[in-house]
Amino acid sequence: MNFSKTLITWYLQNKRDLPWRNTSDAYYIWLSEIMLQQTRVAQGLPYFLAFTKTFPTVFDLANADEEQVLKLWQGLGYYSRARNLHATAKQVAFEENGKFPNHYKALLKLKGIGEYTAAAIASFSYNEAVPVVDGNVYRVLSRYFNIETDIASRKAKKEFTQLATELIDVEQPALFNQAIMEFGALQCVPKSPDCANCPLNNSCLAFGMKKVDQLPVKLKKTTIKNRYLNYLLILDSENKSIANKRTSKGIWQNLYELPLIETTQSENDSVIISKIKDEFPETESITLLDSENRIHKLSHQHLHIRFWKLELNKVFEVGFTYSELMQLPFPIVLHNFLENNAY
């Protein structure tokens, strides 16, 4: 069986109609690839449409204020992608005259573009015969060829990229890359794939050896850190609030947040109230808005969040009205809280 031709035939019959597949414009290809990293298509599609409407060219994105970019990205997560996206747009607009380099090695020189994204742009925009290797491709290849290499190991990328290079249809590289990625997304899915109706089942080693649910192998476990965050919605006597911009590196850099009391463990209400009074002695009333912890899960952290409302007998020098606050880029968990707690 010809692996590449079978995949391409399947793809042409089953592919989803997605806007970035109807263009070879490197700007749109790049946007989609950055947005879809660690993000499902269903979640990323509305953001892609919003970005291309607001920033139809790389110059529009480059000239935008970072806060506008972060606000539009709000809810997509992994906000470093948005900051890198903005930096790359500036580099392309102002150093490359708005044109993305037209081959893989030159694309790698752009800030924020790694091997995967460079290969995607080179392949989909310029039809260069370089393989695009993502999680879907790892899964398809590991199952079809019964590869037990730990995909979290250092040698995995080189091994799978080499295999994909040997398999790629050099006459139709973009089509092959789209096909194998889509096959992993729709057919060779992580859990309970429909192997009985798979066009590759006659030659798939994992299927023949009843090992589909054991591949790909991923041994590295992510260490999860628990953090306990008490956010304070503080209102002054004019019903204005305050927010701070996170400038330190780490989660949510350059996004806004409400004043925060963080503890190393879950504390009872009296402990938090005492800390609030120590930090804001002008407080007249303190209300816990939600007695249950909201657990916001990030890739390496679980954030245990509670929200408190404070009323102060003072006027902030710089305070935000509710409408002004809602214009700022917040992490989605804070945005959703504010949206549901208008003041």
Automatic annotation (TrEMBL):
Keywords: 4Fe-4S, DNA damage, DNA repair, Glycosidase, Hydrolase, Iron, Iron-sulfur, Metal-binding
Pfam family membership, one: HhH-GPD
Cofactor dependency: [4Fe-4S] cluster
EC number of this enzyme: 3.2.2.31
Membrane-traversing stretches: none
Chain ranges of the HhH-GPD domain: 35-186
Reaction equation(s) it catalyzes: Hydrolyzes free adenine bases from 7,8-dihydro-8-oxoguanine:adenine mismatched double-stranded DNA, leaving an apurinic site
Top-rank EC class of the record's enzyme: hydrolase
Entry's family note: Belongs to the Nth/MutY family.
PANTHER family linked to this entry: ADENINE DNA GLYCOSYLASE
Free-text function comment from the UniProt entry: Adenine glycosylase active on G-A mispairs. MutY also corrects error-prone DNA synthesis past GO lesions which are due to the oxidatively damaged form of guanine: 7,8-dihydro-8-oxoguanine (8-oxo-dGTP).
Name of the protein in its database record: Adenine DNA glycosylase
Organism from which the protein derives: Flavobacterium luminosum
